[in-house]
Specification:
19 strands, alpha+beta, HD_domain, ACT-like_dom_sf, about 725 residues, ACT_dom, globular, Hypothetical protein af1432, five-stranded mixed β-sheet, (P)ppGpp synthetase, RelA/SpoT family
């Protein structure tokens, strides 16, 4: 570079730095400015020999990220300094110790968090994006600003991706749509979310993006004229009320127009609400709500509202802190228009997210405040023990979903993700209530636990000390918290049954003159072709392994000499037999969706799943359902691009599966017969009554009972016990 060019570049860098200080959302003290200056000088020095792909000096990137952090996210001096330094430890000779010496512990910790996120090895075979995301969320424990700076870094990378190779553009863009946009949305950074989504679309579907963009340019004048005509109708009435306001149009983002076109299968011209009108008014805190509804009444005096499209986020703000009043009205020329009414304070919160929220709440906002949000994320992190793809899916479900608001019996408001059920509600109140749920009343009526709740429902949970989760609950619960608690409770229950099973086994073997010790347990596990001792004890506990089977085991064991030869002769086939048996009896069937339907499917060649693997189904265009492993290299692409074609799948273990059987009873009617029958059934462990029907005629009793049992042995025992009841003549399964 020539001397002239260097000088020009240095001037440009100095100009950018001044602008950074000028646009900061927080008021910077002299101390703050010193810290930022030192960070700036250090970054300039560290990156002096680096250039970006586009050819410009590398330092422009950290400055741009710091500007996003300072202005759009509205963070403090500590975060601005960390943003300037975010690539220093990773890319240059400066170390973390240097950071701590120069800038103190907080900045060093944030820079360390950002470095950790970037240093992901690319050899791992599980979905990198999901793993990346999980690592990123775990750094939240250190400092939430790590995430915010990472989002700003990603935004600037997306804005300057033109000079990269096409395959890299697509990879980075799809990762952005999959992870960073939902995250920005959840933190309440709507503008950044919108820009990330639009840029993501620009690189993943450039033709679609450019097509919509050019059409929006064409209709721009038309839109401005429309906003003008809308404003003119209501201006006079607003002025009469002496309101201080401004009316702006906000075009819908390209990404959301694309989403609407896809969802409703319509063309660009058929998407009605391509823009919203915003009325932003000045107000003190006391009159905010009152003025919002005043403006609402003025707008609806002139334009007819759609009553089903009223969204009142002023009375109950979203969990992101978003407040506004949204109404959809029929505007001039009979077009539907969304009108968003918000005060300047609400507008700032919608633009800046948490930073603005706490500026208003705590005056000059420094580091407190974001705690509340952190605690909410903490919950999602506590259960981060499954595989990464699952974790991301659950996290996204919880974060990116729309919310519903339901009431407790005392009238308190609870916010839940859309699609939540009474079980999710129970666990959101308290884990103990969730685990002891017996049933639920919605608006005073008993409903199944699988019922989807709607906004405005009043939900009451009926608990019982004897209730405990069963495997079906996993199909009813949608929130990550509820699912994690149910899973761990089911594991505990299996352990409890196994504990009982161990004692039963000890007793039964004693009768067969065998002492239960480690080698006997191992022999039993091999003999019954199981995997672990827990499986063995559990199967004894639920009577899948009965007396006869144990007798067979004992006799095969006593006859050691013959056995030795038998084994010698049978050795080669044994291994194959164990595997095949285990798979065919215990994991023989794949079921799909919440309803666990049995559908036709094929295994995909890219990851060749085998029974027992974590899998999901993907509905292809020509080949029906293809089954992929959850950690298949293609999983992320399919899940981020074709989420609507994914269907959940699981293997069912036939020892765990419940079977339905109908029992027919005949006998002589006498007092207390029905209660004796029901007593026998309810005292029989692991049997569940689904349906019951008795009738008596001329002293003769007949009944039909539908029960759910885990296996035939349990059913046999039940039939024997029913036969013993005084007055029962015949018991049979039909």
């Amino acid at each position: 570079m020539t001397v002239l060019e260097v000088e020009k570049e240095n001037k440009q860098i100095a100009r950018q730095y001044k602008e950074l200080l000028r646009i900061s959302y927080q008021t910077l003290t002299d101390e703050d400015k010193k810290l930022i200056r030192l960070a700036f000088d250090t970054a300039v020095d560290a990156h002096k020999d680096q250039r970006r792909k586009s050819g410009e000096a590398y330092i422009f990137h950290p400055i741009a990220v710091a500007k996003i952090v300072a202005q759009q996210i509205g963070l403090d001096a500590t975060a601005i300094a960390a943003a300037l330094l975010h690539d220093v430890v990773e890319d240059t000779s400066y170390t973390l110790e240097d950071m701590e010496r120069l800038f103190g512990e907080t900045v060093a910790r944030i820079v360390d968090g950002l470095t950790k996120i970037s240093q992901m090895t690319s050899e791992q075979d599980i979905s990198l994006q999901a793993e990346n995301f999980r690592k990123m969320l775990l750094t939240l424990n250190d400092d939430v600003r790590v995430i915010l700076i990472k989002i700003a870094d990603r935004l600037h990378n997306m804005q300057t991706m033109d000079s990269m190779a096409a395959h890299k553009q697509v990879k980075i863009a799809s990762e952005t749509l999959y992870i960073y946009a939902p995250l920005a949305h959840r933190i309440g950074l709507y503008n950044i979310k919108t820009e990330l989504e639009d840029l993501g679309l620009k690189y993943t579907e450039p033709n679609v993006y450019n097509d919509i963009l050019s059409k929006m340019e064409e209709t721009k004048e038309d839109q401005e004229a429309y906003i003008e005509s809308f404003s003119n109708v209501i201006k006079e009435s607003l002025d009469v009320e002496g309101l201080n306001y401004s009316i702006k149009g906000r075009p819908k983002s390209i990404f959301s127009i694309r989403r609407k076109m896809k969802a409703q299968n319509v063309s660009f011209d058929e998407v009605y609400d391509k823009f919203a009108i915003r009325i932003i008014y000045k107000s003190d805190r006391d009159n905010e709500k009152f003025l919002a509804w005043k403006i609402y009444s003025i707008v609806t005096d002139h334009f007819r509202p759609n009553p089903t499209r009223l969204r009142d986020w002023i009375s109950s703000p979203k969990t992101t802190g978003y407040e506004a009043l949204h109404i959809t009205v029929i505007g001039p020329k009979g077009r539907w228009v969304e009108v968003q009414i918000r005060s300047e304070r609400m507008h700032e919160i919608a633009e800046k997210g948490y930073a603005a929220h706490f500026k208003y709440k705590h005056g000059e906002q420094k580091e407190q405040g974001i705690e509340i949000w952190l605690n909410r994320l903490q919950e999602a992190l506590e259960n981060a023990d499954g595989n990464a793809v699952d974790f991301v899916e659950e996290f996204k479900l919880n974060l990116y979903s729309q919310e519903i608001f339901v009431f407790t019996p005392k009238g308190e408001l609870k916010s839940l993700p859309k699609g939540a059920t009474p079980l999710d509600f129970a666990f959101s109140i308290h884990t103990e209530i969730g685990l002891k749920t017996r049933g639920a009343k919605v608006n005073g009526k008993l409903v199944p636990l699988s019922r989807e709740l709607k906004s405005g429902d009043q939900v009451e949970i009926i608990t019982s000390e004897s209730s405990k989760p069963n495997a079906n609950w996993l199909d009813y619960a949608t929130s990550a918290r509820a699912r994690a608690k149910i899973k761990s409770s089911l594991k505990d229950e299996k352990k409890e049954i196994a504990e009982e099973g161990k004692e039963i086994l000890r007793r039964k073997l004693k009768q067969l003159k065998i002492t239960l010790n480690e080698s006997v347990v191992n022999d039993l596990v091999v003999y019954f072709k199981l995997k672990t001792s827990l499986d063995l004890f559990y199967r004894v506990g639920i009577s899948t392994i009965d007396n006869q089977m144990l007798k067979d085991f004992a006799s095969s064991r006593n006859n050691t000499f013959i056995n030795f030869f038998k084994n010698k002769m049978r050795k080669p086939a044994a291994q194959e037999e164990i595997n095949r048996e285990e798979i065919t009896t215990n994991y023989d069937q794949l079921v799909f969706g919440k309803e666990e339907e049995k559908l036709d499917y094929k295994f995909s060649n890219c990851c060749n799943p085998i029974p027992g693997d974590d899998v999901f189904g993907f509905i292809t265009v020509n080949e029906g359902i293809k089954v992929h492993k959850k950690n298949c290299p293609n999983a992320i692409t399919l899940q981020s691009n074709y989420a609507y074609r994914i269907i959940s799948a699981k293997w069912i273990d036939s020892t765990q599966q419940e079977f339905t059987a109908i029992i027919k009873l005949d006998g002589i009617d006498n007092l207390g017969l029905v209660s004796n029958v029901t007593k026998v059934i309810s005292n029989n462990m692991h049997v569940n009554m689904k349906n019951i029907n008795f009738e008596t005629e001329g002293g003769v009793f007949s009944g039909k009972i539908t029960v759910e049992v885990k296996n035939k042995t349990i059913l046999k025992k039940l039939l024997e016990n029913l036969k013993k009841i005084n007055g029962i003549d015949k018991v049979r399964r039909i």
